[in-house]
């Protein structure tokens, strides 16, 4: 065992400063090179970022060095406990896998087998590593830290909700990788502490770690999926620790007269890095005067200098300082369209083409409103992108319908999108209350929670007192019926607020399959045939959290998204056939759409909820009005527009509640062509479980085929290219960092978003 040669406190300071500064310098050069290849960065910014990297290194190194001393005092007593210690680190490493298996959210027999194999493989490896770990107590402590760090990533990214169904899907692979990463990080931190205490690392080990860390610094932006931001952050952490450990092989020490003031500066920088900057005096920041003019805080410098997700994100705070909107033709068109929001059509607009009868003069239409969870626009036949005979029932309906090719929801979560189109309000305008889920997936309202209930997750449900679509239709003579399958996730539990206002609520519950929902919908349709009805049917099996079929072969086929779309297409076809058999086709308006899309890796996004890419948002929208010849519409429209559209088609446009924010599509339907329409706004919210509250995470604005999104966590902007018909062809734009390089429409759309959420923007741009 290598014995440390101590030269006292001065020698310790010199060695620690040397390791931290040299490691920070190496990592800084790698990340700086990465930034320079992508965009401009000034000298003052680069120097400030180096100071922050050094502070970050010291914040990592000092606790490890102090814990090393404490660990050294008790290491001899741990020699006899190597087997329990290896078991402890193994269990800590596979903790995310164990949680997934215990909660049984979604896992297969193959997943269980690989998890057990992984656990059995880790134990002998960690038992072998025991002899090479000098600070064994510190190893156990860092194993706990690593478990906390990586399980936080698992929770924040929602991997437990999506992993386990298939061995080769991204969430499952990421979960397995993070299991290994937990064990490796614990080992790395213990070895780093040993090198900081004076133990010379193996040359090969140091060289490999330094190379791996520098490689991650250069490549992380390109290889980490944009959606997994927390994974990117822990990758940066691992890379930085690896670089510091790698350079610790060099024995040189900075002279004390240089290391002492340098260490003092880094200590101050580190302290300032920990202190929240919101509301602090400007003197307590490292912001250079020129940087202050650009309104960049320390955190922004940190991100720009290599700790950001990539060049597609742009610091927004400078744009917030623009006093006025840019002027020009785009601005005039935008403001003209914006004035149409909540516009109530005149009788002349509803009868623009006398040959197109959208209102039944004899009696109001019935309405069959069908939504398919997670249904992408490009997976339907009418889009022209899915191939022939993929969705025959959808295609048949589209052949008789008004076909909207650019329809978007107001959120990419079911709990955001569905309330938005039922209440015709944006998610930020709807009042929600929390509902809690325990480890057995049972849901609890706030007044049902006792001390014995162990809460696993928090959801939000609508509790808005404003009138929604079914409530208003019920007051005006319609029989309102809901059939809502949620795959037993509980979103549409009748105790909650999603189906508020419906007179008859059908909920498959524990039998949460689309077959059960179809049976309930058929029975409800038969019972309502003699009534004037509005019936909402929500199919769920396309969603990744669907109930797994019992048949093994069918279960295997259900892993394919396209197969699930075909199966729901069959069920929609059966429901429409029944509508015709009952003699209701000629007096029933059929509306078909999806509540949101589903990303499969487009622009680095998987699943749905947090991404603002087209695959997550672009949904089909078909409206079949009896006797109306089909028309294709290319104008961007929102699902929030559906509630006032239904009222206009029912001949009750004068009874639309003033609280509704949607703009009726009836004038387009009456004219049979595209008309000017307000911009589309989308919001994404997150639940903060620990603080028991919701907060807006991101908002996007779509207009004239253009899209801009602002992420409010760190004030970054995403500029997208022209919205294509095919989500696979969507691209991100990478503008320069300077305002004068942005186009007028980009500036205008960003300013519009930020002015709509001043309470979120102002605190982050002080």
If you had to describe this structure to a student in words, what would you say it looks like?
This protein is of the alpha/beta class and about 775 residues long. It folds into two domains: about 10-310, no CATH class; about 365-750, Alkaline Phosphatase, subunit A, CATH 3.40.720.10. It is about 45% helix and about 15% strand. It contains 27 helices and 20 strands. The strands form four sheets. Strands 2, 3, 7, 8, 9, 10, 13, 14 and 15 form a nine-stranded mixed beta sheet that branches. Strands 1, 16, 17, 18, 19 and 20 form a six-stranded antiparallel beta sheet that branches. A three-stranded antiparallel beta sheet has the order 5-4-6, with no helix packed on it. Helix 1 (about 10-40) packs parallel to helix 9. The longest helix has about 30 residues, at about 45-75. The chain starts with 8 loop residues before the first helix and ends with a helix.
